[in-house]
Each structure stands twice: as C-alpha cells, then as structure tokens.
C-alpha cells in the first residue's frame, strides 16, 4: 500500500511521507543494508496503521452525528389509523407519525398525543432526557426513550429539519480548513524540495571522494530524508482541528470549520444581543393600559393580535398569546393589509381601513404621534426601569390609543458567563434595540458596567458598532503566536444577522431565526450560553496543542539532525524517531476528545448549572450530577 500511495503521489508531481519512506527503503537496498530497509518498511507500515486508528476516532465522532438521519417513518393512515412505513425523505408536512419507544423522530414536529421523555443529546449535547407533552415541539434525530408512544404532526420535511441543518453545518465544517493548516501544508510543499535536493547531494557528491565516503554519506542522506520529513506536522495538525470540531459538535456546538475554531481562541471582545441571547426571549404581557378612552382593552388586544400575527419576533408571539389568554379572538374576515416590518421600530399595517402602528417610542416620535399625557410617560419610564420593554399602539389620525409593557426573563447562566469572561480579560458589551431602562436593568443583573450597555440601536447601528470595533484593518486572520485581537458577536434574530456577518466570529443561538444561524460561524444548538465558554476554551486549547506539536516536532528533528552530523544516528533509529514523533503529536491532538480534557475545561467554567457527565453502568446510562453527593442518577 505504501508503494502504491507513493507511486500515485509522484504521478501528480508531488512528494509526501510515503515517497520519502520508499526512497529510504530502496536506498538501503541499493547499499546492501537489508536489515535497515526491512526495518524502515515495517515500522512505517506500523505507523500508518496506528495513525489511521488514531485519526479515525476524530472522524468517527463527526460521522456519528451524520448517521443520526432516520431511514424511515411510521405514518398513521388518516382513514384507517393503520401504521404505514414510508422512507423518511418522502415524509410530507402535516402528517401524523408514530414514534414508539426507542424510535428516532423522523422530522421536526409537534406532539399531539402521548407524554414521554426524549433524548436530544445528539442535537444539543444535553444528556438529560426532556419531557415532552402534547403541544410541545420535537426535533428530528431525537429519540423517544420513555415508556409511552408519541404521536407527532410533522411541521417540516426531513430535508428542512433541524437535524438536516446540523448535518449540513458539520459537512461544511469538515470542508473548511484553518489558516494554520494551510500554513503547515504550504510549508511542507516548499520544504520538501529542499529536503530532496539536500539528500540528493549527500547521496551523490561524496562518491567522488571514494566508496567508503560515498556509502557513509549516502546512508546519512537516507537518514536525513526520514528525520526531515514534516509528516508529524502535516498529519497531527488536521487531526487536532478535527478533534476540536468533534468535541464541540458532540456538545451541540457547530463550528463552521477549523478557521472559525482557531478564531475562537483569539477573542478579546464579546458583543451580546439582549433579547433571546442574555434573556430567554419568552415574553409575558405585564401591563396594558388604554390611552384616551377611544378603545377598550379587548379592542386594543384584538388590534395587537392582528398586527403581530404575521411577525416572527418573540415579542409578537407574546402579544398574540396574551390576546388568546384573555379570550380575544380576531375575526377571520379581518386581516392586516400592507403589513410592513419597520426595523428597530415596530410594524405598520392597514386594519379596517385605518393605518395602525405598533412599536416603540422611536417609531411614534419619528411619525410625529408621540403625544400622550404625562401620566403615561411616567408609567412607561417606571416599567422600563423595572426591566420591561414598553410599546405603543396608535392609529393614524387618532394618535396613540394604548400603551403596553412586556417582560423577558434573564437566562440563569448569563451572569456567570459574563463573570467568567471578565475573569479571562475578555471585554463584554451588550447591544439592544430596547429602551435605555430595560437595557440598563438587564445589563446590571448580568454584571455589565454602564459604559458597556448600548440601547436603542437599529440593525445598522449594531453593524456599524461592530465594524468600528474591528477597526480599519482588512487582514483579520489570527496568527498562531499572536495575541487576542478578534471580535465575537452573539445574537439570535434577523436584526442581528448583519452584525454577525461583520464580526470576526458570529455566534447564533440555535433557537433563533434561521437567517441568523445561516449567517453565523458558530451555532449553539440549545441556546445555552455556557456552550460559548466551552467553544472559546476548546479554540484556545487547539491553538495550545498545535503549538506544542510544532515545538516538539522541531526539537526532536533538531536532535536527530545533530546526531546525524556526528555519525551517531542509524536508519533504524531515524525511523523510530520519526514514527514516534508522529504518533505522539497525533495522540496529543486527539486528547481534545478525552473525558479528562473535557472535564478540565468544564470545571474552569464553574457555572450556575450543575455539570453533568455520562457514565455507563450495567448497560444503563447514568449521569453524575455534581452536587457534592457523588450519587448516580439513572436517566
């Protein structure tokens, strides 16, 4: 196999480690050093086998996720109620599917019957099963691990499911190489000709000074070919990045390639959106007051439901839900015509031949409609200071007819994540389109200084701010030995997409808008901010590991070259040195997948949520909940 690989490589006018080893073996045979030739061939074959086994683990870790795609689905016939097995790729939207215990969910959908536990670890990295009840959403690729059958109604095809998007992101990640990988490959291509020329001179010129001198330096030339081979770097570097990508993917963090993983280790500033990032994005209506008496509370709720129904913003869903909770049902004959989203301000549409506006005070000031009694402005300021988001409802010609306030909840891990970032000398800034009061309230609760809280920003303001942070430099590729210089932006909405693209690293919350996920470099599938810390630590660990491998490889090669110059190196020890170095640096790269390394990274985070590690015992899966008891909980 080595001879064949060398032949195919040379046919492409290239020269790699296989070619070098074949050259060394043939050279030994020509010199009559049969033991040396056999040793070179045997040891290199062993190294190929061991290296393949080591690197296969990293690739298998990623391919395991790809293999989660379900092959078939148990569709319930609407006429007879019988189960019909169909290929998963032919599953239509809106059909009812039976998911029995142990079955994979074939496509994204909503539970319509049954209560059971679902394992979503393949998507989110969270080992604890999640209870699912009627009305709750389930994702393709998750597994029913409870004792009850679930019946779901599909909301997407297999090709448009969360699992398919995850697989696409992983395949894209495998195709993208980092700057360091490119640098190592470029170095090997330029370095190899130098090695060949030097070895050729060592194997030919000395023969003019006699046979004994020629044999001595020819052997040294063959030794030089082996010890100067850069295969330790060219093999271990991509393995290190693959291991890092696999470690994050198994925890529900999808990074689009080694270049983005490397950038995560060079972040100096983290910019966070507020709604859906620092907060959960699950709003509740806390206040609604009619203004002027022209419309009743229920009439205002009806208008809000009509206006917000077409919008995908979490705040819109809250207002529609609030109307339903109070028994307000909008007529099917009434709809919002010419519905338009006003970015950073609100929405406008025509309802019952009247032009209606719903949005923040910036919108109503711009259109000259912000004219309400002081009582209502005082309420708005008070609600905003309490952390609420204040909005208004207005009709053209009638002015503002209602004022409301919705409140969001802060993610329980947000304060700890910000604190740990500060401890790591990372600057943290919050950007939001909400009012100053709501922004200040959330910022103070998560531990941000007043100077790091920016409010009332339009999407283009966020874009400009991130661009200004980056500066005017057009070269933003991090240096392996450089410091932390890059800007990272975390967001979840359509409004965040431009800023995510402008940042050196864009991170999207998996529960956010599809556009934000598409435009980002990193996706946190379960929208847990602790995964941001994990990905940054893995990025830094990858950089450290690559540095260790480069330093160790250079050190060993220098020692071998010095010994060769003094005549203390043999061909056998040269191949042992080269193979040993290659295996050690490869295994060093693979340590990123080891439970010990992962546990060490997770201990550094020390977040609010208890850390969990899975164990296998007696064929059952357990979790060790780090609550100080050390007990195992069966899951």
Structural write-up:
This protein is of the alpha+beta class and 635 residues long. Helix content is 48%, strand content 19%. It contains 22 helices and 25 strands. A seven-stranded mixed beta sheet has the order 10-22-21-20-11-18-19, sandwiched between helices. A six-stranded antiparallel beta sheet has the order 2-1-3-9-4-7, with no helix packed on it. Helix 16 (436-446) links the parallel strand 18 (427-431) and strand 19. Helix 14 packs parallel to helix 16 (436-446). The two termini are 47 Å apart. Residues 607-635 have low confidence and may be disordered.
Strand content: 15-25%
Number of strands: 25
Question: What gyration radius follows from the Cα positions, in whole Å?
Answer: 31 Å
Shape: elongated
**For the terminal residues, how far apart are their CA atoms?**
47 Å
**Share of residues in helices:** 40-55%
Biggest beta sheet attributes? 7 strands, mixed
Computed structural class: alpha+beta
Task: Name the poorly predicted regions.
Answer: 607-635
The largest sheet has its strands arranged as 10-22-21-20-11-18-19
Number of helices: 22
On the 0 to 100 scale, the average pLDDT is: 78
Write the layout of secondary structure elements.
Layout: H1 2-11, H2 17-30, H3 34-66, E1 72-76, E2 83-87, E3 96-99, E4 109-113, E5 116-119, H4 121-124, E6 130-132, E7 137-138, E8 143-144, E9 150-154, H5 162-175, H6 179-204, H7 211-227, H8 231-249, E10 253-255, H9 258-264, E11 267-273, H10 274-278, E12 284-290, H11 297-308, H12 314-325, E13 337-342, E14 346-351, E15 354-359, H13 361-366, H14 374-385, E16 389-395, E17 399-407, H15 414-423, E18 427-431, H16 436-446, E19 453-454, H17 459-470, E20 486-491, H18 497-502, E21 505-509, H19 514-519, E22 522-524, H20 530-565, H21 571-590, H22 595-605, E23 612-617, E24 620-625, E25 632-634
Parallel strand pairs: 11-18, 11-20, 18-19, 20-21, 21-22
Antiparallel strand pairs: 1-2, 1-3, 3-9, 4-7, 4-9, 5-6, 5-8, 10-22, 12-17, 13-14, 14-15, 15-16, 16-17, 23-24, 24-25
């Amino acid at each position: 196999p080595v001879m064949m690989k060398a032949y195919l490589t040379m046919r492409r006018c290239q020269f790699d480690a296989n070619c070098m080893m074949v050259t060394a073996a043939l050279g030994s045979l020509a010199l009559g050093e049969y033991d040396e030739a056999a040793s070179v061939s045997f040891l290199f074959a062993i190294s190929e086998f061991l290296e393949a086994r080591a690197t296969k683990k990293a690739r298998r870790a990623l391919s395991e996720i790809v293999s989660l795609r379900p092959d078939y689905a148990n569709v319930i016939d609407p006429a007879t109620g019988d189960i019909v097995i169909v290929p998963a790729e032919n599953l239509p939207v809106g059909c009812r599917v039976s998911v029995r215990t142990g079955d994979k969910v074939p496509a994204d959908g909503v539970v319509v019957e049954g209560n059971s536990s679902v394992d979503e670890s393949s998507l989110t990295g969270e080992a604890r099963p999640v209870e699912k009840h009627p009305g709750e959403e389930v994702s393709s690729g998750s597994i029913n691990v409870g004792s009850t059958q679930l019946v779901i109604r599909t909301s997407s095809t297999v090709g448009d499911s969360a699992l398919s998007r995850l697989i696409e992101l992983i395949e894209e990640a495998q195709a993208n190489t980092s700057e360091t990988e490119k640098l190592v490959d470029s170095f090997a291509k330029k370095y190899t000709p130098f090695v060949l020329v030097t070895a050729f001179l060592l194997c030919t010129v000395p023969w003019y000074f006699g046979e004994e001198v020629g044999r001595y330096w020819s052997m040294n030339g063959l030794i030089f070919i082996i010890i100067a081979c850069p295969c330790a770097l060219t093999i271990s570097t991509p393995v290190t990045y693959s291991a890092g990508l696999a470690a994050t993917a198994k925890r529900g963090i999808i990074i689009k390639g080694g270049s983005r993983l490397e950038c995560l280790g060079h972040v100096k500033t983290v910019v966070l959106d507020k709604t859906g990032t620092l907060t959960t994005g699950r709003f509740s209506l806390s206040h609604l007051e009619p203004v002027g008496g022209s419309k009743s509370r229920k009439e205002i709720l009806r208008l809000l439901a009509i206006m917000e129904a077409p919008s995908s913003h979490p705040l819109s869903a809250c207002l529609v839900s609030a109307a339903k909770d109070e028994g307000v049902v909008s007529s099917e004959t009434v709809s919002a015509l010419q519905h338009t989203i006003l970015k950073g301000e609100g929405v406008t549409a025509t309802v019952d031949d009247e032009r209606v506006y719903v949005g923040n005070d910036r919108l109503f000031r711009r259109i000259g409609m912000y004219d309400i009694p002081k009582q209502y402005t005082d309420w708005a300021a008070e609600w905003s200071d309490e952390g609420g988001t204040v909005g208004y409802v207005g009709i053209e010609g009638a002015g503002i007819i209602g004022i409301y306030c919705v409140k969001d909840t802060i993610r329980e891990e947000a304060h700890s994540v910000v604190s740990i970032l500060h401890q790591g000398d990372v600057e943290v800034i919050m950007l939001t389109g909400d009012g100053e009061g709501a922004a200040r309230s959330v910022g103070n609760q998560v531990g941000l200084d007043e100077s790091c809280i920016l409010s009332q920003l339009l999407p283009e303001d966020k874009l400009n701010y991130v661009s200004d942070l980056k500066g005017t430099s057009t070269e933003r590729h991090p240096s392996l030995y450089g410091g932390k210089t890059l800007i990272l932006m975390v967001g979840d909405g359509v409004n965040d997409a431009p800023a995510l693209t402008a940042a050196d690293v864009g991170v999207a919350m998996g529960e956010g808008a599809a556009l934000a996920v598409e435009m980002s470099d990193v996706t946190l599938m379960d929208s847990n901010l602790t995964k941001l810390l994990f990905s940054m630590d893995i990025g830094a660990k990858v950089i450290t590991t690559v540095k260790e491998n480069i330093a160790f490889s250079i050190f060993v090669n220098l020692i071998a070259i010095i010994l060769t110059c003094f005549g203390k190196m043999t061909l056998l020890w040269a191949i042992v040195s080269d193979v040993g170095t290659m295996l050690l640096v490869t295994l060093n790269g693979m340590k990123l997948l080891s439970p010990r390394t992962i546990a060490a990274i997770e201990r550094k985070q020390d977040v609010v949520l208890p850390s969990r590690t899975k164990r296998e015992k007696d064929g059952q899966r357990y979790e060790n909940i780090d609550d100080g008891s050390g007990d195992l909980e069966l899951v």
